[in-house]
Amino acid sequence: MDKKMALSKKQIGLETSMVANKLTDECIYVSLFGLLDSARIEDVSKKITKISESDKIVCVILDLYNVDAIDTAVAGYINRLGNILKLMGIEPIICGIKAELAEKMVKTDIQFSGIQIIRNLQDALLVSFKVTGYKLIKTEK
């Protein structure tokens, strides 16, 4: 096996801070990975803001499911990102906070103020549909 191809999740997380995908013309999904420090989250914030500048974007889902730890500085950046997005007329939605991460956040008094926090990606998608005016309709097979 080629050693260059064998990368662990943590190695990928150190190199790639985020994955961003357009879910609809009006909603962007951003998944963050690994350990987030101030430098990485600042870079991520700039990228998300730039991607969101499209006049059609009204919703950004920020998925923290693959994040190992958040400190107060990173939480501050995420709060600022949420405020920036709101000033741009974009609804920020955070999802995927696992129990272990939630416990660490509570112990260190980390809070996200004024940002919708949703349990998981599936529920965040439903909220984004309400924000963007989409309907999810199950069809017959």
From TrEMBL:
PROSITE patterns: STAS (PS50801). Pfam families: STAS (PF01740). Gene3D superfamilies: STAS domain. Residues 17-128 form the STAS domain. This is STAS domain-containing protein. It comes from Sulfurimonas sediminis.
